[in-house]
Design brief:
Layout lengths: L2 H13 L12 E5 L8 E5 L12 H6 L3 H16 L5 H24 L2 H17 L8 E5 L7 H15 L1 H12 L14 H28 L5 E5 L7 H30 L4 H14 L6 H21 L3 H21 L8
Parallel strand pairs: 3-4
Antiparallel strand pairs: 1-2
Helix pairs in contact: 1-3, 3-4, 4-9, 5-10, 6-9, 8-11, 8-12, 9-10, 9-12, 10-11
């Protein structure tokens, strides 16, 4: 066999993560370095055996979420076929493949979390509008008892619900790490914690107060249902569970709809204004079960929080602010409901 042809076949085989037929050497796995630099090839010899991704189709690789590896393989193929640098059009197609895979990832994360909540919230609003009673005569309970009369079982249900609701956050962290990033990439870390806490408290007080006023106005205007923060029984665990639920809401919503979504949309080359509107609209949409006031208030909060995140890149202050807002609403309702006659 001609030496040049043999060399080309060897390069092509390496690009695809295997060796030519009849070659019994240990397969070599090509992978990019951790910062995503495709020009620096890091080889790691794996144990002899079948590469679990070697026989997968291109679509399977996308769903397996290996965009960098697929793009790298495409570039290697181009280099092998041309004997040098990959053609420019092949590099561009690899970049498009990465963006498509990233878009699929975003849709899957939203479909498993707050996107699904938005869908059900829209259906809840249609159900409320089709009811014979006006919106203000209906109610939506946020933290409801799952096993009335069975305190221990009810507590177990509450804790299980909080834990399951945090799974999308774990998924986001996993996907960030898998793509060579970390939670610091979306501004979720404990650096400058004192400053972040101060920001969180100020935002929580300002946004929480404005949100309460908007809710009361929308309710009395007939644009909102009566929102009941909790109907949990008066047990020893009620307040701790409500605080945990508030923290869960703050972490889930800010990580997914603010940090992760805005970060990924920027990677997908959306401009900041378009990304901000999409994030705020999603935040408002999954609160539509409360009525039109719930949508408007939370969309406005999304515009504020999203813009702060885009400018500062800090997520911890938003998580703290959101957690304080919800904790104040949940616990405040329990403590003050019987003392404030103007609360619906």
């Amino acid at each position: 066999m001609d030496a040049a042809v043999a060399e080309r076949r060897e390069l092509l085989a390496r690009a695809l993560g295997s060796h030519p037929p009849g070659d019994t050497r240990r397969p070599v796995q090509w992978a990019p370095n951790r910062d995503g630099d495709r020009g620096n090839d890091r080889r790691s010899a794996r144990a002899p055996g079948r590469d679990p991704l070697a026989s997968r189709s291109l679509i399977a690789r996308i769903l397996w979420w290996q965009p960098s590896s697929v793009a790298l393989a495409s570039i290697r193929v181009g280099e092998a076929l041309t004997g040098g640098e990959a053609p420019e059009h092949l590099a561009r197609s690899s970049e498009v493949l990465d963006r498509k895979a990233l878009g699929i990832e975003v849709w899957l994360v939203l479909g498993l979390s707050l996107g699904a909540s938005a869908l059900y919230a829209v259906l809840d609003l249609f159900r409320s509008l089709s009811a014979s009673a006006p919106l203000r005569a209906q109610k939506a309970v946020i933290n409801s008892s799952a096993a009335p009369g069975h305190s221990v079982l009810d507590l177990a249900y509450q804790l299980a619900g909080i834990a399951v609701a945090m799974v999308p956050v774990a998924l986001v962290v996993y996907l960030l790490v898998r793509s060579g990033e970390s939670v610091s990439s979306i501004g979720l870390d404990t650096t400058r914690l004192g400053r972040e806490t101060a920001w969180g408290v100020v935002l929580g007080v300002v946004v929480g107060g404005a949100g309460l006023g908007l809710y009361l106005g929308a309710y009395h205007a007939g644009l909102n249902v009566r929102v009941v923060p909790t109907n949990l029984p008066a047990t020893w665990w009620r307040i701790p569970v409500l605080v945990l639920a508030a923290v869960q809401n703050g972490v889930l919503e800010e990580v997914v709809v603010c940090g992760y979504l805005l970060h990924r949309l920027r990677q997908l080359r959306w401009n900041d204004d378009r990304s901000l509107v999409a994030s705020a609209a999603l935040r408002g949409a999954y609160h539509l079960y409360q009525g039109f006031g719930g949508f408007l208030g939370n969309a406005a909060m999304g515009l504020l929080f999203g813009r702060l995140y885009q400018r500062r890149g800090r997520l911890m202050r938003l998580v703290l602010a959101h957690s304080l807002i919800d904790a104040g609403a949940f616990v405040g309702y329990v403590v003050l409901r019987s003392r404030l006659s103007w609360l619906p």
